[in-house]
Design a protein that fits this description.
- This protein is mostly helical.
- It contains 19 helices and no strands.
- The radius of gyration is 21 Å and the shape is globular.
- Bound molecules: 4-fluoro-L-phenylalanine.
- The site of 4-fluoro-L-phenylalanine (PFF) has 16 residues, from helix 1, helix 2, helix 5, helix 10 and helix 14.
Length: about 450
């Protein structure tokens, strides 16, 4: 493609990438993962993953995308002709479709909750009722599948409009409003009777709870939340112009994304303790807690409509970005029309998404590796494929790519004086790949077997 669109404004670049990063991963997945893994210790490890692995891998994706203005496959082929590293684009395509499938189910729940808020059904119940309301939604095969289809339909329509108009306009407008709303909800939660317990749960880590599943969960959450390791940010960076400062942009994205996740935690955990819920509730946590929060706020009816509307938009900017990986690949590598590629992407997600939606009801007994389809897609993509993709991309930029091209990208052809370049390169070459490998080895129990051998 000779005339690839470019993000016109500086805000557009950041807003669209933040739009991809900020989504249900921050507001739905982060609190429940943190809750299931003991709170504080999980959050500490999560933060380490964001700063030591996340930022370097974002930069690695940016460097490849902006240096070539191409999708992952052609980009790597251009930078290292014939290199096997280009197969990382398949990890991107597979994981993006898997994520789109289960993500659309959760986004479908958001639409149902928005609908229930509007017709006033979400008001005036007890915390136990909210648990039943959620269970009856996910327990109903046709309702969950229908909302999933509706969400994918909306995603499809927006994608057909093309990158700049669709993504940039929506993200520019809505992200700041979402931030503002989250801050208001935070203040409300901090005034709840058991706010202190909630904050202690989040911020006083108990490291005796550290386990392989917690560590891989924290790493997976960092990759998922930052939209990392599946070449999504690489694809976005291929639309950046020459003036975008890559290191600064990556740092801003990581910080904003982390702030949203922490804000979500500060909203949810004080409420969990105040309303007598269990932090370990899993995927339903946020859907049970948020309505209780609205109930207790003056004007809760309007707050719930506002929050679910914004959550809907936060999810759509994320699903647009993951669909874009697949679509760019089909249009640029296989000369498919954008229309056809969008249809194919949506079609696959419809089938897999329905399987995920049904795994809470009629298919709940079908398990692969002891996980339902929903859990399996989530676990395999977030905890295995994304870190594996991140590993490959970091090794490529750190060890394979021409060092001058990397330096030129980081300094915008020498026009920026970047003091953090050396430590960042060190993280890309050594810290990120080694940490990812060590975490994988730890999780498959290699260290335990070694210890058993030695002692
Ligand atoms: N980062 C998004 C979120 O936190 O909701 C999820 C996501 C978007 C993952 C795009 C992967 C991706 F390519």
């Amino acid at each position: 493609m000779s005339e690839r669109a470019q993000f016109v404004t500086k805000m557009g670049v950041i807003a669209a990438s933040v739009g991809s990063a900020v989504g249900l991963g921050n507001i739905w997945r982060f609190p429940y993962e943190a809750g299931m893994h003991g709170g504080g210790a999980f959050i500490c490890i999560y933060l380490l993953c964001v700063f030591l692995l996340g930022i370097p891998v974002i930069i690695a994706e940016f460097v490849i995308g902006r240096a070539t203005h191409k999708n992952a496959n052609s980009a790597i082929n251009l930078l290292a002709p014939g290199s096997k590293f280009r197969y990382v684009s398949y990890i991107g395509i597979i994981s993006s479709v898997m994520i789109l499938s289960f993500y659309s189910v959760v986004a479908g729940w958001i639409i149902e909750y928005l609908f229930q808020s509007i017709i006033g059904n979400l008001n005036g119940h007890s915390p136990e009722d909210y648990s039943n309301i959620f269970n009856s939604l996910v327990g109903s095969p046709w309702r969950s599948v229908l909302w999933t289809i509706l969400f994918l339909g909306i995603n499809f329509l927006i994608l057909r409009k093309g990158i700049q108009k669709g993504i940039e306009r929506i993200s520019n407008l809505l992200m700041p409003i979402l931030f503002l709303l989250l801050i208001i909800f935070c203040i409300n939660s901090l005034l709840l009777p058991k706010a202190k317990e909630g904050l202690e749960f989040m911020f006083s880590p108990d490291f005796s709870q550290v386990s392989p599943s917690m560590i891989i969960g924290a790493m997976g959450q960092a990759f998922f939340s930052l939209s990392l390791g599946l070449t999504c940010l690489l694809t976005y960076a291929s639309y950046f112009n020459d003036k975008t400062p890559l290191i600064k942009t990556a740092t801003i994205i990581a910080i904003l994304d982390t702030c949203v996740a922490i804000l979500a935690g500060v909203i949810i955990f004080p409420a969990v303790f105040s309303f007598g819920a269990e932090p370990t509730a899993g995927p339903k946590l946020v859907f049970e807690i948020l309505p209780s929060i609205f109930n207790q706020m003056p004007g809760g009816y309007l707050w719930s409509i506002a929050l679910f509307t914004l959550l809907f938009f936060a999810s759509i900017t994320s699903t647009i970005s993951m669909s874009e990986i697949f679509i760019t690949f089909c249009t640029e590598e296989h000369n498919m029309s954008r229309k056809k590629a969008t249809r194919l992407n949506t079609g696959i997600a419809l089938v897999l998404g329905s399987l995920c939606a049904l795994s809470f009801n009629v298919l709940s007994d079908i398990k692969v590796f002891d996980k339902t389809f929903f859990d399996l897609f989530d676990y395999v993509s977030s905890n295995i494929l994304l870190p594996a993709g991140g590993f490959i991309l970091a090794v490529f930029v750190g060890w394979v790519m021409n060092k001058n091209i990397v330096a030129n990208q980081l300094t915008n052809n020498g026009t920026l004086n970047v003091r953090t370049m050396r430590p960042i390169l060190f993280c890309i070459r050594y810290i990120a790949p080694l940490a990812i490998i060590l975490i994988f080895l730890y999780v498959i129990g290699l260290f335990d077997s070694l210890a058993a051998l030695l002692f």
